[in-house]
Design a protein that fits this description.
Blueprint: E1 5-9, E2 12-20, H1 21-36, H2 51-81, E3 86-94, E4 102-111, E5 116-117, E6 124-129, H3 134-147, E7 150-153, E8 165-174, E9 177-190, H4 198-204, E10 212-218, E11 232-246, H5 252-257, H6 265-298, E12 300-301, H7 306-326, H8 343-363, H9 369-380, H10 386-394, H11 397-419, E13 421-426, H12 429-432
Parallel strand pairs: 6-13
Antiparallel strand pairs: 1-2, 2-4, 3-4, 5-12, 7-11, 8-9, 8-11, 10-11
Helix pairs in contact: 1-2, 3-6, 6-11, 7-8, 9-10, 9-11
Amino acid sequence: MAVTVETLEKLERKITLMLPVGVIQTEVDTRLRKLARTVKMDGFRPGKVPMNVVAQRYGYSVHYEVMNDKVGEAFATAANEANLRVAGQPRITESEANVEGQMAFDAVFEVFPDVQIGDLTTAAVEKIQSEVNDEAIDKTVEILRKQRRTFAQRPHDAAAQDSDRVAVDFEGKIDGEPFAGGKADDFQFILGDGQMLKEFEEATRGMKFGESKTFQLAFPADYHGQDVAGKTADFMVTVKKIEAAHLPSVDDALAKSLGIADATVAGLRGDIRKNLEREVKYRLLGRNKNAVMDALISKSELDLPKSSVQAEMDRMVEGARADLKQRGIKDADKAPIPEDVFRPQAERRVRLGLVVAELVRANSLQAKPEQIKAHIDELAASYEKPADVVRWYYGDNRRMAEVEAIVIENNVTDFVLSKAQVTEKSVSFDELMGQN
């Protein structure tokens, strides 16, 4: 019998499912008889419980299971016969349709939309490019030197200055009252590194061993400590120790300490350049990929399945809870997180997923085995034992699926760039890395 599909609105559809009562009852009886062979009940030997007792105890739950199974099977069969691409789970309720000897159910559900992708030759994409220069390498060398700095105590009459490590006692009060986290003894920080708020660093700069000072500190409105955010505190700080930083010289010894194979300054800079160029490549790929996806969305028309957007929001809320839990937030799984905060991002993800899937299908942009292998080989090349990393990827289906998704995105990016109106723009290394 042909399946009748009713369109409710946009992507929403309805199918009425008919289930013969006799088929349902036969399956219920079969399952109860099977259950009776193993069920244990007080007063009866195993397998000897009368059927009427088994039916009285388990009849409702078995009937519920059978109904769920049979309705699910009927829906899957009907959707398949009607060539429907179902998005999400159907909402199934008893129907008012009345046919003797049958039970009727209405299945309301969404289907995936038809995706219309416009003329990509009229899409405008700004493609950025950047390069690693000597200045970027110099900055990285300084970072490596800072990571290996040592400290020596300054004379007692020396004033604290930027790059010094200072140890202080401090206590803060708001309206004359102490507050949580506002007091510490022998607290160490590097002056000028931005570890402390600006007013705290300014107050400490220029102080000498044993000196005390009072000052006001205005906590930013977005400060992580909600109890003090936006409030002004009175602080007293006492300097307990001042240590001057000593950075290692840029020489072969530094290169050797960093495990550089060619333990020379030239070898160190060459290794830094190779690593930075790899990072630049991936940053450019990510930025240009986003620009391509924006252009692709702008050239596409489709309705979004509400169920898919809801499922994506649910995933994002769960991700936010997991993040809170990882950060040690108490009762993170009960934290009130408004899902609508994630709606724009969820809608973009769903829209992009459907558009990319259509573009891949229409233009055969699936990931080829040799592309996946090349990508894994490239990822593994930066490790000490590349072969182990390759095996690690190939040994897990989920990791392989992630690589496949990246390769497909790269294929889509290359395809759109080959069609679109592309303008190239050079950006500095610092801008690309978000350091400006």
